[in-house]
Specification:
With 322 residues, this protein is an alpha/beta fold. It folds into two domains: 140 residues, 3-Layer(aba) Sandwich (Rossmann fold), CATH 3.40.50; 159 residues, Glycogen Phosphorylase B (Rossmann fold, 3-Layer(aba) Sandwich), CATH 3.40.50. The strands form three sheets. The protein has a six-stranded parallel sheet, with helices on both faces. Helix 1 runs parallel beside helix 10 and helix 6 packs across helix 9.
Length: 322
């Protein structure tokens, strides 16, 4: 949320995946705290996920002309509200694509972003990516450059959940008879890592054999197109389809634990402070692990999948110290 003395305006283009958006939240909080009034532009689900932050979040249009028109309109509205344009940079381009930089340039905005895909000439300020950085650190470094100062990395993300979503989560739990300290799982994963599947192949068998002994309700919130798979492969798990990301974050906020693949909901769990057992195979935790003090990464040697016993032991340790 912008400070009351906010006078500078910044249009922010989010990335297109849930985990990336979650990892950018600390940088956005930092910029708002330094006096920037933010206008956020992202996928349609971003408004629900970020509702607790009370930033204006606008749905990203589908075509280049529509996107350019939106950016121009947001700039004009900011000027009408008396917000000043910074002298050098007035937009933050978090995606690394050529097209995202082009959209800002055509809208007459001077964006800061990473210098790749030959887009440096389109940006108002271009930074080269440092190899080996976690993605949250890469976003934080863009904030350093924009503000002209460095700051220690945050230990946690602190994603805020709106009161409306907390109430919706309470209603869902009452409707389905689910206790607040339940266990959520996310056995799905969008995309791949180095062309390899990010879905733990033993997840279904593990959920049927190991999780019931914990004596808690096990919940899964499948995304669009995942509902049938959830019901088929996880018959002993409570399935809650159609949950928006803000309500999902609220359910996680009160949960005892989440067990997840390398996927967006795992990042949300870590961001709201819920203990997370993150089951990784080919993914690189140096760059993409969920961020926070309550994250336990379980991975086999050399980027292989861990044994079910190892995951079970990690869950037992986390619950014993909760």
């Amino acid at each position: 949320m912008p400070s009351r003395s906010a006078r500078r305006h910044l249009i922010v283009r989010l990335r297109n995946w849930v985990g990336d958006v979650v990892l950018s939240v600390p940088t956005l909080q930092r910029l708002a705290g330094q006096g920037y009034a933010l206008d956020i532009v992202g996928k349609g689900w971003a408004a629900s996920l970020l509702e607790g932050a009370v930033w204006p979040v606008h749905a990203l249009p589908g075509t280049l002309p529509e996107r350019v028109g939106l950016f121009r309109r947001l700039r004009a509205e900011a000027l009408a509200r008396g917000l000043q344009r910074p002298e050098t940079v007035d937009a933050l381009c978090l995606p690394d694509s050529f097209s995202s930089a082009l959209e800002f340039r055509l809208a007459g905005l001077r964006a800061i972003g990473h210098a790749n895909e030959g887009r440096s000439l389109l940006l108002g300020k271009a930074l080269r990516r440092q190899p080996g950085l976690h993605e949250l650190q890469a976003y934080w470094r863009l904030g350093d450059a924009l503000l002209g100062l460095t700051a220690p990395l945050p230990t946690s993300i602190g994603l805020r959940v709106s009161p409306r979503h907390m109430a919706q989560a309470d209603d869902l739990r009452r409707l389905h008879g689910i206790e607040p300290d339940c266990i959520l799982i996310c056995p799905f994963a969008g995309g791949t890592w180095a062309k390899q599947d990010k879905t733990w192949p033993d997840f279904a068998a593990f959920s049927a054999r190991v999780l019931p002994r914990l004596g808690r309700t096990i919940v899964v919130c499948p995304g669009p197109g995942e509902e049938a798979l959830a019901r088929r492969d996880f018959p002993k798990v409570r399935v809650l389809p159609g949950v928006d990301l803000g309500t999902y974050a609220a359910l996680l906020h009160s949960a005892a634990l989440m067990v997840a693949n390398d996927t967006g909901p795992g990042h949300i769990a870590a961001a709201v402070g819920t203990p997370l057992v993150s089951v990784l195979g080919p993914s690189d935790p140096v760059r993409w692990r969920a961020w926070g003090p309550n994250v336990t990464v379980v991975q086999g040697e050399g980027g292989t999948w861990p044994a079910s016993e190892t995951v079970g032991e990690a869950i037992d340790r986390v619950l014993a110290t909760a």
